Recover the amino acids of this structure.
């Protein structure tokens, strides 16, 4: 029986011009390139310029995705933007992006699931497309985490970067098989008992300030691999696919050690793992579409390839998706 699937028509990304290396951070705080590379795999990150907001990065990523897809902005009916660093408390940054793209129809809204944001946004848009509510959607992950970092806390400020990535999805009728193009399955989870391990200590309702990111790094690390692998097993069980079936593993880029351990536990060959954390740092909701764009541009991900996505972040939230390109 045929099925409506959300097929990826194109993807794109944008990174701010300013690159900050580990050595540059070591000149400002008590850290070293060696410590950061050994613990995280991160070598450098991009940082947004003064006056450059999350919406600016998102608009550029969306334009790149539309151009890659070869479709006009006016054909987009839905924008779901994942971010924890919106331009303003309200309106949603997605609406600013919609206006910036010259779109004044359909719907646009933000979605907040921290580092899992892109997977949550992809699942949300996929459900709208499969229901028949919309035909074409932009799914964006965009962040300026540099604005919520405590630059005196060496345990967190070395880990994150700014950037944006986007994909264009289109509802298309497919055969209803795992060989179909499009989003084959998504799995989302959350558990608020872990709030204190990774949070921002401010907000409009609590402190009336933006606040700074706080993290118990070891605690996050301890839970990450188990949660990530659990939700990937859910995706494999739902589809009958497995680690051998996938062509590319594009994980949330938080930390090379978490990615390596997850791939190892799932028996995913290292050459199938797309890694950008060395150059981008952790860009939260933007990291997966940024990595997808890199692997598309350098020719690794090709039409028909099976791509496994996963993310885990504050909340905790975590999720996975299997997408045939
Ligand atoms: N440079 C030098 N030394 C540092 C730095 C730094 N940037 N940061 C911490 N240290 C020191 C600590 O002060 C501590 O020193 P002490 O032993 O004298 O007290 C020592 O290094 C060890 O500190 P830990 O925090 O225990 O270091 P750990 O080995 O756990 O590594 C890290 C820290 C990299 C944050 C690790 O816990 C980790 O990767 N956690 C996962 C967190 C993560 O990736 N979060 C991203 C957000 S969540 C997500 O996206 C999944």
């Amino acid at each position: 029986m045929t099925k409506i699937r959300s097929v990826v028509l194109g993807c794109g990304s944008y990174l701010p011009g300013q690159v900050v290396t580990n050595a540059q951070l070591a000149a400002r705080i008590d850290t070293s390139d060696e410590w950061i590379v050994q613990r995280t795999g991160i070598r450098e990150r991009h940082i947004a310029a003064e006056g450059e907001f999350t919406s600016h990065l998102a608009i550029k990523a969306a334009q790149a995705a539309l151009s890659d897809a070869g479709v006009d902005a006016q054909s987009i009916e839905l924008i779901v933007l994942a971010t924890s660093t919106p331009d303003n408390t309200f309106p949603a940054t997605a609406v600013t992006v919609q206006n910036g793209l010259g779109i004044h129809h359909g719907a646009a809204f933000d979605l907040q699931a921290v580092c899992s944001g892109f997977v949550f946004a992809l699942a949300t848009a996929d459900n709208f497309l499969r229901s028949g509510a919309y035909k074409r959607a932009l799914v964006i992950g965009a962040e300026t985490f540099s604005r919520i970092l405590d630059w005196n806390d060496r345990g967190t400020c070395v880990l994150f970067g700014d950037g944006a990535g986007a994909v264009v999805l289109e509802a298309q009728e497919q055969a209803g098989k795992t060989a179909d193009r499009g989003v084959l399955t998504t799995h989302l989870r959350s558990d608020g008992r872990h709030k204190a391990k990774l949070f921002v200590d401010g907000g409009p309702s609590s402190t009336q300030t933006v606040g700074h990111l706080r993290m118990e790094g070891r605690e996050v690390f301890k839970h990450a691999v188990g949660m990530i692998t659990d939700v990937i097993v859910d995706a494999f069980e739902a589809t009958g696919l497995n680690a051998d079936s996938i062509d590319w593993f594009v994980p949330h880029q938080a930390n090379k050690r978490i990615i390596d351990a997850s791939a190892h536990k799932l028996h995913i060959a290292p050459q199938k793992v797309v890694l950008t954390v060395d150059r981008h740092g952790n860009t939260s909701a933007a990291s997966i579409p940024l990595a997808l764009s890199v692997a598309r541009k350098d020719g690794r991900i090709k039409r028909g390839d099976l791509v496994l996505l996963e993310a885990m972040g504050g909340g905790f939230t975590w999720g996975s998706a299997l997408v045939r390109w």
Notes: The longest helix spans residues 217-239. The two ends are 21 Å apart (CA to CA). The chain has two domains: 3-174, 182-324.
